[in-house]
Amino acid sequence: MWNRNGKGKTPIIEDENFTFLGKGVDFKGVVHFDGTVRIDGRLEGEIHTKGTLIIGEHAVIKGIITTGTLVSGGKLQANITALEKVQLLKTAILIGDVRSPSFSMEEGGRFQGMCDMGVDMWVDQERPDHENVHDLAAHRGKVRLQDIQP
Q1: What is the chain's percent helix, strand, coil content, to nearest 5?
Q2: Which of 10, 18, 96, 100 has CB atoms 3.0–4.6 Å from 82's, for a disulfide?
């Protein structure tokens, strides 16, 4: 806590804001945070942060969540939009829809809802410019047969 000169140590992360809503805190409404947020209480409403949102295993959240990264071990009944990723830990329960480029869930975690990871088109779907695409396998087969015959 103190260095040898008797002066206080500087924090490792000076620019990072950290907000904590502890167990036993009940909150209703819309909240906007900067930086990292950890919630261990109950929240009903909307949560907005561009940073990391950590939901503790005793937390209960109902509403809408917009975040950079979500790591949850608690109970969520929410629609989630994450700019980076959503990670559900083994104690997590999520009922709601997720929009995120990355989604992971540990064994034991539970999820009911839809997950949209931004895929626009199925890989096997025909492209609109299919007129200019030729079946090379069929063409190669014909060429080989012609080359073999005398």
Answers
A1: 10, 45, 45
A2: 100
Burial 77-112 (b: 16+ CB within 10 A, else e): ebbbbbeebbbbbebbbbebebbbeebebeeebebe
The predicted model scores a pTM of 0.69
pLDDT in tens, the chain (150 residues): 444 555 554 444 444 677 777 788 888 999 998 889 899 999 999 999 999 999 999 999 999 999 999 999 999 999 999 999 999 999 999 999 999 999 999 999 999 999 999 876 666 655 555 555 555 555 555 555 555 555
Distance from C-alpha of 53 to C-alpha of 65, rounded to nearest angstrom? 9
Can you tell me the distance from the alpha carbon of 74 to that of 78, in angstroms, rounded to the nearest whole number? 12
Give the integer Cα–Cα distance in Å for 24 and 110: 24
Any idea where the domains of the chain sit in the sequence? 18-116
Cα gap 95→47, rounded to integer Å:
16
- Identify whether the C-beta of residue 108 lies closer than 8 Å to the C-beta of residue 124: no
User: Dihedrals φ, ψ of 140, to 5°?
Assistant: -65, -40
